[in-house]
Amino acid sequence: MPKQTIRDIELAGKRVLVRVDFNVPLDEKDGQMIITDATRIQETLPTLKFLIEKGAKVILCSHLGRPKGQPDPKQSLAPVAPALSALLGCPVQFSPETVGNSAKEKALALSNGGVLLLENTRFHAGEEKNDPELAKGLADLAEVFVNDAFGSAHRAHSSTAGVADYLPAVSGLLMEKELTYLHDELENPERPFVVILGGAKVNDKIEVINRLLEKADTIIIGGGMAYTFRKIVQGITIGKSLYKPEWEPIAQAAIDKAKKLGVNLLIPVDAMITDAFDFDAKKLGTTKYTGVNENIPDGWEGVDIGPESVKLFAAEIAKAKTVIWNGPMGVFEIKESSKGSFDVAAAIAENTSAKTIIGGGDSVKAVKKAKLADKMTFISTGGGASLELLEGKTLPGVACLLDK
Ligand code: AMP
Q1: Residue 297 lies inside a defined structural domain of this protein
Q2: Tell me: the pLDDT tens digits for 376-386?
Q3: Residues 119 and 196 in one domain
Q4: Ligand 1 pocket: which of 362, 363, 364 to mutate (most atoms <8 Å of CB)?
Q5: Quick one: 129 and 241 in the same domain?
Q6: Residue 157 sits in which domain range?
Q7: Same domain for 169 and 201?
Q8: Which of 82, 92, 123, 198 makes a 20 to 30 Å CA pair with 184?
Q9: Same domain for 165 and 212?
Q10: Are 276 and 331 within one domain?
């Protein structure tokens, strides 16, 4: 799926519309909106610096929050302009209009290397409907479109895909990296290739399991969805652990497919169990570890993998040359049941001779919480987009880019 990037096109003096992900968390303080975490802004800097150095006129657009198609001052992108300006070390102008005459005037007045940030694209009802009028309005501001908002690439919106109907479109450097690690690298991975999948529901992850079964040497299954597999393979009772009867045939098909393809399918052999679980209050009741292949009693549920499972998984991870991890091993949001996920994160971090890829969503949160982010080869910035890419789906925000 090689796509053209900002490295492949002429940029000097060109007005370049860049779709970024500035969907930053905001907090109100003394009547002002304050950015509480600027990670998403920082992640766009390589692309923006590249464009500025090449003499492009940079016009930035993004969504922020869910303003329901109309202006909402509390979800304005205005606070991002000074924050970005400080990070880039150059002025960043703000346009209170996303499209229209005054936005166009500001875009036309940009000098080479100048930066303009447009107001929240979701202040327009057309954005999420992929309305061509809004897409045309955005395209009218620029000569080239750059998509660097990987986290929104699974959505066909005016600013993520529609605008590419009217402008030549290429990827930014962040998007390029995501596609490299979550797609290209996994087509021909260095082996052994170990895939670790966790999370709550079998049906949410089955497409990823199916696709990666075709590529992996080993698939490790953890998290809530592992109990369905344990019930089938180990014949144990699973108490009130996450389970639905309709997940059984899905899990069975994956087990059969692994056998047929000669893929090593590893599932947990022990669990941390609890007799009470209140996710909202972040509280567990009494907790204990089961023995290996031991039944989970009635009234108890598995909330994390146990130490023997960690050993089993870590041994496989240590042999890998490529590792990808998506989905936590347990309820990592609660301290007592976070150990399995943190231990797996540590095992991945310890394998310094492997390419280690953290494939989005909650496993990214777990790695960051474990303070191991800088030990990984690549950490995806996407949630839904990473999952869809790993499932082998075509993302509208990628499909619209020019092929190499
Ligand atoms: P997902 O969005 O499918 O990747 O699932 C992530 C969620 O699964 C996290 O919020 C975890 O707390 C939850 N989870 C992981 N393991 C379990 C488990 N054993 N029981 C209940 N929830 C779990």
Answers
A1: yes
A2: 999 999 889 99
A3: no
A4: 362
A5: no
A6: 6-176
A7: no
A8: 198
A9: no
A10: yes
Instruction: Indicate whether 232 and 155 sit together in one domain.
Output: no
Whether 223 is in the pocket of ligand 1, judged by its Cβ within 6 Å, is yes
* CB of residue 275 inside a 6 A radius of ligand 1: no
H helix intervals, 164-274: 173-179, 185-187, 202-213, 226-234, 247-261
Q: What is the pLDDT of residue 4?
A: 98
198 Cα to the center of ligand 1, angstroms: 7
Return the residue whose CA atom lies nearest to atom 15 of ligand 1.
330
- The alpha carbon of residue 404 and the mean position of all alpha carbons in its chain are separated, in whole angstroms, by 24
Closest by Cα among 374, 314, 376, 375 to 339: 314
Domain shared by 68 and 196, yes or no:
no
Question: Among 3, 15, 19, 40, which one carries the catalytic annotation?
Answer: 40
What's the sign of the alpha-carbon dihedral 157, 400, 154, 362? negative
Q: Are residues 136 and 205 in the same domain?
A: no
Domains in the chain: how many in total?
A: 2
Supply the CATH number for residue 375's domain.
Answer: 3.40.50.1260
Which among 375, 341, 379 is positioned nearest to 359, based on CA atoms?
Answer: 379
**Does residue 239 line the site of ligand 1, with CB under 6 A?**
no
Q: Of 143, 176, 209, which closes a domain?
A: 176
Nearest CA residue ID for atom 17, ligand 1: 224
pLDDT at position 133 is 98
pTM of the model: 0.93
Instruction: Answer with the one of 125, 141, 176 that is the final residue of a domain.
Output: 176
Q: Is 306 in the pocket of ligand 1 (CB under 6 A)?
A: no
Q: Is the CB of 242 within 6 Å of ligand 1?
A: yes
Stretches where the chain sits below pLDDT 70 are 1
Which single residue is written with the structure tokens 């960690």? 310
The pLDDT of residue 1: 64
CA–CA gap between residue 313 and residue 328 (Å, rounded): 13
